[in-house]
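In the current project phase, we have settled on a layout for protein records. A sample record is reproduced below.
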Amino acid sequence: MGKMADNADIAAVYVITPNSTHADLTIKALEAGKHVLCEKPMATSSAECRRMIDAAKAADRRLMIAYRVHWEPHNLRAKAMMDAGELGEVRFASSDHHRPLEPGKPRDQWRMLKAVAGGGSLVDIGIYGLNGVQWFFGESPSSVSASMHAPEGDPRFAEVEDVFTAQLAFPSGRRATVSSGYSADKKRIDLWGDKAVATLDPGTAYQGNRLVIGNAKRADEILTAEGDAVQFTGEIDHLSQVIAEGGELRTPGEMGLRDVRLIEALYQAAATRRWVDLNPDMTMRSGTP
């Protein structure tokens, strides 16, 4: 990082390391005068997220969280259709993100360690659903409940959960369910409108995402002109433009902090087996068990 600080050719750093290292590496890059794009989850605790945001402000640098789906064409089309009323009134959404955890691959070995990953499937791939339903609805939940399961005898889940399920209640009255898991292989989002249901299946894959609009009588696939790569190039172009021209980030550090606070509330709900009430900033209300 010391050498990087003296290199004027480096304007930004992309932090894509194990979750527990995000905070320290991000802060070092910011202190070196570099803007940062940090992978999700932003960090393993909300306290670390706060430190990262404070470091960005102190350094007068930009801190963006890599929620690439905000640039994914099918997701953008589904949100535009929902916002335009083409689905009718959407009172419920469901998001299910599952993939096999493979300990034979280095990328998954650290994900089995709670101190490094911060949790199991929820923090790894469930975060797509948590961030996504808030983005589609344009609001954050006011209360949550949850449960999680780790099968006995499976060494992959000695420290972290396999399956996590959550119910989210929103101030508008909308509801959502979010599930994640480390055994099945599916990444799907459904927006349930009274005119039509938007199904993204897969919804957050690196390639091959599809959007189908339908009901009990018909189903129509919606095609997009943009290719899969735009979800990656789009977020990088956005950060570059904001660095060069100013403006607001679509997925700033504050969004990452919000989502980590929500994850903390969900683990609390799962541990106590009770609903947890939330403040607008996703901190748990006083008196929550």
Residues 116 and 241 are 33 Å apart (CA to CA). The two ends are 42 Å apart (CA to CA). The chain has a mean pLDDT of 97. The chain has two domains: 2-67+231-251, 71-218+263-277.
